[in-house]
Amino acid sequence: MKRKLDANDVPVPTGNIDGQKGEVTFTSLGLDPRLLQAIAKQSFPAPTPVQAKAIPLALDGRDVLARAKTGSGKTAAYILPILHSILKRKLFISALILVPTRELAEQVNKVVELFTAFCAKDIRAVNLTQRVSEAVQRTLLADSPDIVIATPARAASSLDTSLVSLENLSHMVIDEADLVLSYGYDSDLQNVAKILPKGIQTMLMSATLTTEVETLKGLFCRNPVVLELEEAEDEGGGVSQYVVKCAEDEKFLLLYVIFKLKLIKGKCIIFVADVDRCYRLKLYLEQFGTKSCILNSELPVNSRIHVVEEFNKNVYDIIIASDEHEVLGDEEESKDQGDEEPSRVVEEMSKSRDASGEQSQQPLKKKRKTTKKDKDYGVSRGIDFKDVACVLNFDLPTSSKSYTHRIGRTARAGQTGMALSFVVPAELHQKHKPTSIESTVHDEKVLAKIVKHQAKKGKDVKPYNFDMKQVEAFRYRMGDALRAVTRIAIREARTRELRQELMKSEKLKRHFEENPGDLHHLRHDGELRPARVQSHLKHVPEYLLPKEGKKSITSSEIGFIGKKIGENGTRKARFAGKSKGRGKKLVGRKSDPLKTFKAKSRK
Ligand SMILES: Nc1ncnc2c1ncn2[C@@H]1O[C@H](COP(=O)(O)OP(=O)(O)OP(=O)(O)O)[C@@H](O)[C@H]1O
Asked: What is the 220 CA–ligand 1 centroid distance (Å)?
């Protein structure tokens, strides 16, 4: 019979070498010394809760289904035991890691590289999602790599053409298990499941336990230990969540004020509803001399990966991202969402393995969205953006599930962060014609679901009311800037960026592998400039500033870049010193900068 283990039931080893008694350390987990060296190089102080619980189980050969919040270190929780097993192998063994997006595949590959820094010659990983010719791929796979990382589609087609051999497969992981089915990988996963050797160890990692995860559990696991990490178990950190009720045009006004007066100190991801909105916002911010870069499914994958890498190195401060086909419906609320984006309900009978490894019949029910552009694209899920101070939902997502994953891009690894969401209430929606219907129609309905969903996790979504009187002073300039951002300008910017990025992408692929040092020349936050440039908008005249003066708004207390709880207010050492001398103050969330901007109730 399947047993559901509460996270607290899991026997956690007591510390022996470098920890207090009862405290779990990486050493006490019994990992290979070469891995411990690599972990030390990462300056990871101790295993995160999900690592402390999942690693011993995985080392013990158990199938594991782990649910832990976004940014809680799930990747290392499955990679470390796999690497350990490969290093300790008596026979040849190998692992297959399935992830929903190419960005994630690249990210996982990087994590493998980091952890194998001291045993690189003993472990070889191949990322199958790289767009290389079949001949190159054959060469890469020729001498049986230890780890193969792929999206389910890539894995299925490579298995089909016998590019990948499962002969020695001993481990299989599905990361972001709650997402893969929503990405339309159902038949690929079924194909993979059919040909997997019996008795291999499987691990499913997920931020939420949905029916989709249950489906995968049935398909791939044998009597798995189910780990459900409560949020409270994830040490420290957390996202302070705020909403601002405002009209569509006020979103632009607030955006101007927030960035021009530098109310956000640290890096920010702005989420919008669609690709055009990305460019509208970028051009709008350009009017004020504020640089940003864009992430959307239209851009070539090399550019997308490069943008994330550079953002993580603090080269850019602002990413404007559209997660247009990641807007997943709320599984549990699907019945009352008849007016949301149409979703295709796929119901099939799938073959699944039962505890004995035999095939059994089990109904496979799931929702699936048809995807428009690059199916393997994903921003709000899984991508490890480093040190994001604020997630700004310029357009509210259309489901609470999307919201959870968007805000999970901040406050990672025990840090703190802030999520600020613009919500257009029905009455203000009437007043101002929205530029994006999709982004505003459901706002209040979605907000109610978000609040309910967060309340279940004991989280508050608080109102954040600007003193709109003070903000109004900037309206004239907002109007000036918005008028320059015409539809034609947006269209031009979109095609220009695509053209530029395609060129860069090709170059990136061919040239920069050999010259990694040159990468910084290919910046992604350059001005697109199709909009009329109004240089006066780049400066904020003194008379526009609130009475307290600019100084009070940009005082040293401003900033809410995540600090690691329990580290006396200092950020993790590995992040410190990476801000390239741009004077970012590393302070905690107590000093919420937006509050210096006189928060008041809306009349
Ligand atoms: N033990 C640790 N101590 C400190 N930082 C850690 C530790 N383990 C992982 N991290 C860092 O935490 C961050 C988040 O890790 P990871 O991407 O694995 O999270 P996740 O749980 O998979 O998130 P998501 O659900 O969004 O995919 C990474 O930057 C990683 O380097």
From this structure: 24
